[in-house]
């Protein structure tokens, strides 16, 4: 349990909660409920939360999966710097946004869901997580193969030391040495 | 790659038929319930008060009943393994449908979420209508106590939506891949969900009229004139009973959710209990072998354990985590009841096992299973192509072990085995097995039974399997990625007009390419049937 990244789950929850808030707001406005102004607020709040939460953050370890087309949102969210990087700010922001949704029935579900998401963000913030943008990876140059591999060898292969190479007339048997690499005739 | 109708039907036909049947059942149920509330005499007054919101909420509720009962069935893994293993399901086409059980579960889950949104929205409108159109004529029909009161009797509904919210948000692909525990623990809230669901309808807010023969809806009461209609119209509207014999009487709808849901819920709970009892005794770890590239092999013994090649088990190690269970495919199932397994420790729980294991103080391990998977079908085709990516070779290793024990009695006549790895060292996991099988087949005069192709996808460095005893492998080793189209054409040309089973266990890229090739046009009349094994 120690390595769970709570922020990822909080992000999914906040996105879903934004959609629920938006739907509740639409139903409230279309049904002309009493106090429909709260429903109109919920539509705006839902859209804002969805836009804020759409770009997924980068995982600490492992590959991060982006949402489709999230790059432009990443750039926008990144531009707010520490306001969006810090999860304490997000937790309190979501808690504040969800409160007006609790006043009418149509948006109360969205309010509760966003509240839960804000609590999970608080837990993520306490554990020190941060939002890092997923940026396109610059193609790091692979270890380049040295140019010298394409040239023919400049030096002869290594040979045993000179004492061994010198042929000793008195001991022809011992003077012979075995080639370390077997030598075969070139067929072509 | 041009799509071929024949190939597409062979590969995708069964799945899409089931999808069409399921959509048809949902649509039929929705329309039937909608029309019952729209036109039914017993709901006439309620419909007058609530309007369309009543019909939509009840219709979506009946679809929710159906999907909540169906969603549990694909998760009864032991039952599905039994159906797959014994030839209760004789047709191979039907057994291939069992591979898609998880997809069906997800489809039902998504339907539950969508229709929950519809149901909740319609009920919100109902609450407003109960308040605004408070009926003085029929006071027992009301939920509000006076006109203008917004009374909301649906606390169970809110709880259900919250639990569904938690379950749904934790089951996206990226959460399952990165933090599986969140998914597992929230999904196990299903039991709370079902208990609250059964209790949900007991409130009885919606009522139907019990005596519509004696009091036809719209009839005139004794001291009342109908200001809206003329005499002829009202006579035609309700036939010959336009004067009421008695007052309308209402009764709450009896809850039917428990009828739909209790069967599958009991079946699933029985299955979980059976699995728990079966995995109660810990396994004996006989040996632990370290292989290159951070892979360990566990050899275990368990009483009364019978498995078939291609099946997988679920491991639980309480010293790492009491509640987590992770699936692993078996790599060998031999007749003396030993089975082995290759574990690829991801940088998570399993790497904590290694220090304990190195000190020979083996931790207690519990094994649940075996469960069936698509790789069991390799033996049921005349020609099979098995493509493994990296550690995905494990189900096929079990297949190869089974062939080593005896290959004559299977229907399989030719096996193409393609193994793609990133590093050369990975091939040493099963080098012995591959060479042993190769030698056995050569000795028994069937050299064309096994066609082996090994690929190393990382092209830097000098790569060669230099050991003398692994010579069959080094001569079949190729550097670079395989060219699938050429491979398929070759298999098609040498096995004309046959049905080839394609089994893939590896990264998504490979399985997508193979799936596309199986559905595309082939010139030699060979049909390729795609079967995929997935780890998550």
Automatic annotation (TrEMBL), chain A:
InterPro entries: Cyt_b558_asu. The chain crosses the membrane at residues 38-54, 91-124. GO terms for molecular function: heme binding; metal ion binding; oxidoreductase activity. It is found in: Cell membrane. Its main location: membrane. It holds the Pfam family Cytochrom_B558a. The keyword Transmembrane helix applies. Keywords: Cell membrane, Electron transport, Heme, Iron, Membrane, Metal-binding, NADP, Oxidoreductase, Transmembrane, Transmembrane helix, Transport. It comes from the Eukaryota. Residues 139-167 are annotated as: Disordered. GO terms for cellular component: NADPH oxidase complex. Subunit of NADPH oxidase complexes that is required for the NADPH oxidase activity that generates, in various cell types, superoxide from molecular oxygen utilizing NADPH as an electron donor. Subunit of the phagocyte NADPH oxidase complex that mediates the transfer of electrons from cytosolic NADPH to O2 to produce the superoxide anion (O2(-)). In the activated complex, electrons are first transferred from NADPH to flavin adenine dinucleotide (FAD) and subsequently transferred via two heme molecules to molecular oxygen, producing superoxide through an outer-sphere reaction. Component of the phagocyte NADPH oxidase core complex/cytochrome b558 complex, composed of CYBB (heavy chain (beta)) and CYBA (light chain (alpha)). Component of the phagocyte NADPH oxidase complex composed of an obligatory core heterodimer formed by the membrane proteins CYBA and CYBB and the cytosolic regulatory subunits NCF1/p47-phox, NCF2/p67-phox, NCF4/p40-phox and the small GTPase RAC1 or RAC2. Interacts with NCF1 (via SH3 domain). Interacts with SH3PXD2A. Interacts with DUOX1, DUOX2 and TPO. Interacts with NOX4; this interaction mediates superoxide generation. Belongs to the p22phox family. This is Cytochrome b-245 light chain.
From TrEMBL, chain B:
Gene3D superfamilies: Nucleotide-binding domain of ferredoxin-NADP reductase (FNR) module (3.40.50.80). It is a multi-pass membrane protein. GO terms for molecular function: superoxide-generating NAD(P)H oxidase activity. It is found in: Membrane. The chain crosses the membrane at residues 16-38, 104-132, 152-175, 182-206. GO terms for biological process: defense response; superoxide anion generation. Keywords: Membrane, Oxidoreductase, Transmembrane, Transmembrane helix. It holds the Pfam family NAD_binding_6. Residues 278-377 form the FAD-binding FR-type domain. One of its GO terms (cellular component) is NADPH oxidase complex. It catalyses: NADPH + 2 O2 = 2 superoxide + NADP(+) + H(+). PANTHER family: NADPH OXIDASE, NADPH OXIDASE 4. This is FAD-binding FR-type domain-containing protein.
């Amino acid at each position: 349990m120690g390595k769970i990244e709570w922020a990822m789950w909080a992000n999914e929850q906040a996105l879903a909660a934004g959609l629920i808030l938006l739907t509740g707001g639409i139903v409230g406005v279309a049904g002309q409920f009493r106090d429909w102004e709260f429903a109109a607020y919920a539509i705006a709040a839902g859209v804002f939360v969805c836009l804020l939460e759409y770009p997924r953050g980068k995982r600490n370890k492992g590959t991060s999966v982006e949402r489709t087309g999230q790059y432009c949102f990443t750039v926008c969210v990144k531009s707010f710097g520490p306001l969006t990087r810090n999860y304490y700010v997000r937790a309190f922001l979501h808690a504040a946004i969800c409160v007006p949704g609790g006043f009418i029935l149509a948006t109360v579900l969205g309010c509760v869901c966003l509240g839960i998401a804000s609590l999970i963000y608080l837990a993520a913030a306490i554990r020190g997580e941060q939002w890092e943008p997923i940026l396109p990876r610059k193609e790091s140059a692979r270890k380049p193969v040295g140019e010298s591999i394409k040239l023919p060898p400049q030096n002869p292969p290594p040979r045993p030391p000179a004492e061994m190479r010198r042929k000793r007339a008195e001991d022809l048997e011992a003077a012979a040495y075995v080639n370390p690499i077997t030598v075969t005739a070139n067929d072509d | 790659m041009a799509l071929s109708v024949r190939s597409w039907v062979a590969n995708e036909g069964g799945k899409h038929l089931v999808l069409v049947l399921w959509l048809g059942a949902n649509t039929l149920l929705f329309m039937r319930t909608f029309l019952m509330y729209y036109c039914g005499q017993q709901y006439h007054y309620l419909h007058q008060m609530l309007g369309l919101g009543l019909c939509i909420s009840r219709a979506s509720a009946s679809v929710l009943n159906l999907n909540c009962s169906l969603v549990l069935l694909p998760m009864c893994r032991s039952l599905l393994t039994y159906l797959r293993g014994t030839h209760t399901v004789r047709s191979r086409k039907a057994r291939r449908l069992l591979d898609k059980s998880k997809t069906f579960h997800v489809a039902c889950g998504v339907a539950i979420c969508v229709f929950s949104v519809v149901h909740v929205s319609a009920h919100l409108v109902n609450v407003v209508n109960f308040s605004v159109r408070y009926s003085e004529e029929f006071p027992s029909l009301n939920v509000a106590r006076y006109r203008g009161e917004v009374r909301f009797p649906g606390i169970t509904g809110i709880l259900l939506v919250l639990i569904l919210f938690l379950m749904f948000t934790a089951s996206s692909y990226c959460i399952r891949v990165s933090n599986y525990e969140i998914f597992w623990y929230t999904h196990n809230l299903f039991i709370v969900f079902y208990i609250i669901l059964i209790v949900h309808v007991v409130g009885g807010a919606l009522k139907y009229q019990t005596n519509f023969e004696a009091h036809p809806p719209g009839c005139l009461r004794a001291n009342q004139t109908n200001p809206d209609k003329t005499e002829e119209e009202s006579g035609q509207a309700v036939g010959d009973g336009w004067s009421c014999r008695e007052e309308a009487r209402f009764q709450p709808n009896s809850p039917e959710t428990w009828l739909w849901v209790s069967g599958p819920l009991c079946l699933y709970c029985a299955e979980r209990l059976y699995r728990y009892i079966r995995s109660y005794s810990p396994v004996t770890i006989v040996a632990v072998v370290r292989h290159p590239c951070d892979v360990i092999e566990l050899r275990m013994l368990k009483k009364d354990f019978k498995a078939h090649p291609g099946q997988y088990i679920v491991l639980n190690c309480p010293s790492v985590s009491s509640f987590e269970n992770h699936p692993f495919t078996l790599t060998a199932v031999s007749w003396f009841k030993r089975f082995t397994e290759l574990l690829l420790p991801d940088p998570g729980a399993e790497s904590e096992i290694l220090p304990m294991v190195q000190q020979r103080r083996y931790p207690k391990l519990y094994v649940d299973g075996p469960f069936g998977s698509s790789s069991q079908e390799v033996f049921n085709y005349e020609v099979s192509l098995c493509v493994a990516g990296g550690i995905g070779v494990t189900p096929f290793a079990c297949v190869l072990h089974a062939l080593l024990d005896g290959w004559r009695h299977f229907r399989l006549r030719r096996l193409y085995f393609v193994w793609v790895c990133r590093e050369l060292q990975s091939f040493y996991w099963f080098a012995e097995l591959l060479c042993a099988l190769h030698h056995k087949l050569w000795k028994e005069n069937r050299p064309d039974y096994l066609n082996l192709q090994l690929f190393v996808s990382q092209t830097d460095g000098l790569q060669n399997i230099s050991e003398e005893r692994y010579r069959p492998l080094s001569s079949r080793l190729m550097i670079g990625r395989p060219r699938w189209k050429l491979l398929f054409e070759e298999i098609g040309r040498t096995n004309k007009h046959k049905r080839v089973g394609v089994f893939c266990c590896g990264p998504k890229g490979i399985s997508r390419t193979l799936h596309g090739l199986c559905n595309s046009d082939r010139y030699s009349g060979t049909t390729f049937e795609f079967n995929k094994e997935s780890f998550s």
